[in-house]
Design a protein that fits this description.
single chain; 814 residues; alpha/beta; Rossmann fold; Immunoglobulin-like; 3 domains; seven-stranded parallel β-sheet; seven-stranded mixed β-sheet; 18 helices; serine-type endopeptidase activity; Subtilisin-like protease SBT2.4
């Protein structure tokens, strides 16, 4: 299984084939296999947080049964056990061959076996954007108490413990105990055990799976919780970083950063490395984090593709998340970075909150000022090119400054893309604004902005302009901190204006060789933010629904993604080593985009809600965020989405944004919630079409005999999704009053096109902590060739408004 940390770094798990002759035979390749076996794990034989001697004895017993099963089933010397899972799931990981794995599959007591498919990364101002300072923070005594007593677990690339976002302030000690949590601090290279300082309360690393792969590189894949990538630090500080930390990059102050829950504690579980990541290490980390007692589990990593041999809901990864949910942990997961394609989500299950990414209203832009007064807007976090009053510099195109007699390949990388300083004439480019072109090297990933910056610095450019190529079309430009003046011009229309001016001002001989450069240009300040953009807008990369049940993308009756949060151009902590992104090397902060960045926003907000309502279950927390989410932007219009056509916006649907854009001030007082428990998820699984209840029971260890739903759409979640409504269907929901006062609700509905919706009862009164059953009757009035969308709105007498999105595909009767 591939796992993705969002934004997508190029972590590709490569299968290396070893072939050698042994006694005249070819040895089989080995892979890691995840095996679930019969028998109750430790967590569900005890109360959460009380790991007793009886529990420890049971854990030892499980380990011994794993070893006995392997020894009696597999050939001696044909395997090595990687992990035993014993807290929330009973099973193990084994490194062995396919033929030995087949033996295991047939062994008595084995419930499920799945080949490890690898893992991959999916990858400030947002507290103000989300209304936290004057909202939820204010209700708990401000930023000095926001998240107090809550532990957020992060399974990622580790953490940079020396970052000020994770510092402990002895003048502002923590006041709430976290006796429910019992983590540990594992030291190692660049991570002394004192790194667990009270803000970081636990740090572990999981590498046994990764180390079975020959691509594991001990020189960069540090065996400690230290983050050499930066991604894990970015995610952790977005959710729980300290309040008001100055964001300084290249000597420039971009403001102050804060996590969503700045007083929450941080528990680190490093399970992915620069060279690779394995599902084995990831699920081992989930098992440990749940055993330690985290309240919130943040997965900005996850499967990058659906399982190829089972239902999306019944893969090993999903079962581990279900078990964590059963143990009382709120699990939040990145929806994926495969947008804007439909059926591209990698968060499938209703027991984990899948987060989509949006823009904010903040943007960074700079301008290229031409000698004729024309101003071209572009992107680039750099200072201005002009100093000492010199507003204009000579404008030179890279291909016109290439050495005539140079001994280098005449490729675009040397001629157009400014990748190699040795190709350019120092006397022509020194002190000039140099035009570098987006060409084939940037399409295939062999060229980089980092190389342009190095060339600019080595040859003394006054600045560079990286422009679109009309042959290749527009490209996407994200603001990147430049250590030299620079600007990216991503639109071909703008680049053509620049080139037209350049040619008008450039004198050439008959052979086309430049005799005189008369064009002039300057680059303006690009580090000042503007707060005038339309927001939120669903980001182009953010994965879309509908949710699906198998690798053939057959849709299922669950709304995914669940919710929308800021995930575009997010400032947060970084690791100066930055081994996968040299352009950010030496930086303590990074501006990144991805559903990886959106996910910790929801994790931090969940921590605030858990602090406010300690007895709320994960489903109640998720429900509060969903039913109070907003579906309009800062201009009062319906939320729009970026699509496949660059620089155009499209109307969005719940398959883009889920329930809507998270609103913490409303989520803290939702009025009603939709509670769901483990038994409800089992009933959901058992009601899936073409699913054998025995398969469900075998995979999960749960039972289908308690009760079952008529349809998966009966799962008590705050949305209604029906992937094929033929004729009529009755859908049931149950709400609980959490407002503390009796309240009457009037039910309204905006029906999807082609569907009539009746709600019973049309109004009701519910007492504090009381519950109310609702029946939704849906009837097809018009057959359509796609989904249509609507919503149910419950308006309370105490001003609570509860919104339930409806997504239905009306089809012909069979």
């Amino acid at each position: 299984m591939k796992i993705t940390i969002l934004p997508s770094f190029p972590f590709t798990r490569v299968l290396i084939l070893f072939t050698f002759l042994l006694l005249g035979c070819v040895a089989e390749d080995r892979d890691i296999y995840l095996v679930l076996v019969e028998g109750e794990p430790v967590a569900f034989q005890q109360s959460r947080g009380s790991y007793s001697k009886v529990s420890e004895a049971h854990a030892e017993k499980l380990v011994k049964t794993h070893e006995k099963l392997l020894a009696t089933t597999l050939d001696t010397g044909s395997y090595s056990k990687v992990y035993s899972f014993k807290h929330i799931v009973n099973g193990f990981a084994v490194h062995t061959s396919a033929s030995q794995a087949k033996k295991l599959k047939k062994a008595h007591g084995v419930k499920l076996i799945e080949k490890d498919r690898g893992t991959k990364l999916m990858t400030s101002y947002t507290p103000q954007l989300l209304g936290l300072p004057e909202g939820v923070w204010a209700q708990k005594g401000g930023e000095k108490n926001a998240g107090e007593g809550i532990v957020i677990g992060f399974i990622d690339t580790g953490i940079n413990p020396f970052h000020p976002s994770f510092a402990y302030d002895p003048l502002n000690p923590f006041t709430s105990n976290i006796s429910h949590f019992s983590g540990a601090c594992e030291g190692g290279p660049k991570f002394p055990t004192m790194s667990c300082n009270g803000k970081i309360v636990s740090a572990r690393y999981f590498s046994a799976g990764a180390q079975t792969d020959p691509t594991f590189n001990a020189s960069v894949d540090l065996l400690s919780p230290f983050d050499v990538v930066g991604h894990g630090s970015h995610v952790a500080s977005t959710a729980a970083g300290n309040y008001g930390v100055p964001v300084v990059v290249n000597g420039y102050n971009y403001g102050r950063a804060s996590g969503m829950a700045p007083r929450a504690r941080i528990a680190v579980y490093k399970a992915i490395y620069p060279s690779l990541g394995t599902l084995t290490d990831l699920v081992a980390a989930i098992d440990q984090a749940t055993m330690d007692g985290v309240d919130i589990l943040t997965l900005s990593i996850g499967p990058d593709e659906p399982p190829d041999d089972t239902l999306t809901f019944l893969s090993v990864f999903e079962i581990f998340m279900l078990s964590a949910r059963k143990a009382g942990v709120f699990v939040v997961q990145a929806a994926g970075n495969h947008g804007p394609d439909q059926y591209s989500v990698v968060s499938y299950s209703p027991w984990a909150v899948g987060v989509a990414a949006s823009t904010t209203d903040r943007s960074y832009s700079c301008t290229l000022i031409l000698g004729n007064g024309q101003i071209i807007t572009g992107v680039g976090l750099s200072g201005p090119s002009f100093v000492h009053g010199d507003l204009q510099y000579k404008l030179v195109m890279a291909k016109d400054a290439v050495k005539a007699n140079g001994t280098f390949p005449r490729t675009t990388a040397y001629i157009d893309e400014c990748q190699y300083a040795e190709a350019l004439d120092f006397n022509l480019v020194k002190g000039s604004i140099v035009i570098c072109s987006f060409s084939t090297g940037f399409l295939d990933g062999t060229s980089s902005i980092t190389a342009i910056i190095d060339t600019a610095r080595n040859l003394g450019f006054a600045g560079f302009a990286f422009i679109a190529n009309s042959t290749l079309g527009d490209f996407i430009a994200e603001p990147i901190p430049f250590s030299v003046p620079g600007i990216m011009i991503p639109r071909t229309n703008d680049s053509e204006i620049i080139l037209k001016y350049y040619e008008q001002q450039t004198h050439r001989e008959k052979r086309g060789i430049v005799t005189k450069f008369c064009g002039r240009a300057a680059i303006s300040e690009g580090r000042t933010a503007s707060y005038k953009g339309r927001s939120p807008v669903v980001s182009r990369f953010s994965s879309r629904g509908p949710d699906f049940i198998d690798i053939k993308r057959n849709p299922t009756d669950v709304l995914k993604p669940d919710i929308l949060a800021p995930g575009h151009q997010i400032w947060a902590a970084w690791s100066p080593m930055s081994v996968l992104d040299p352009i950010l090397s030496g930086s303590n902060f990074a501006l990144l985009s991805g559903t990886s960045m959106a996910t910790p926003h929801i994790a931090g907000i969940a921590a605030l809600l858990k602090q406010h309502y300690p007895l709320w279950t994960p489903s109640m927390i998720a429900s509060a965020m969903s039913t109070t989410a907003v579906r309009h932007d800062n201009q009062g219009e319906a939320i729009m989405a970026e699509g496949s056509d660059l620089y155009r916006l499209y109307p969005s649907t719940p398959f883009d944004f889920g329930a809507g854009f998270v609103s913490p001030p409303h989520a803290v007082d939702p009025g009603l919630v939709f509670p769901s428990e483990y038994e409800d998820y089992m009933s959901f699984l058992c009601s899936l079409p073409n699913t054998d209840p025995e398969t469900v029971q075998t995979a999960t260890g749960g039972s289908c005999s308690i009760h079952s739903f008529d349809n998966p759409s009966d799962l008590n979640i705050p949305s209604v999704t029906i992937s094929a409504l033929a004729g009529a269907r009755v859908v049931r929901r149950r709400v609980q009053n959490v407002s503390g006062k009796p309240e009457s609700y009037l039910v309204g509905v905006v029906p999807p096109e082609g569907v009539m919706v009746e709600i019973i009862p049309p109004w009701f009164t519910v007492s504090p902590e009381g519950v109310q059953d609702l029946v939704f009757k849906l009837n097809v009035t018009k057959v359509l060739d796609d989904y249509s969308f609507g919503e149910i709105v419950l308006t309370g007498s105490l001003n609570h408004v509860v919104r339930i999105p409806i997504s239905v595909w009306p089809v012909l009767m069979a």
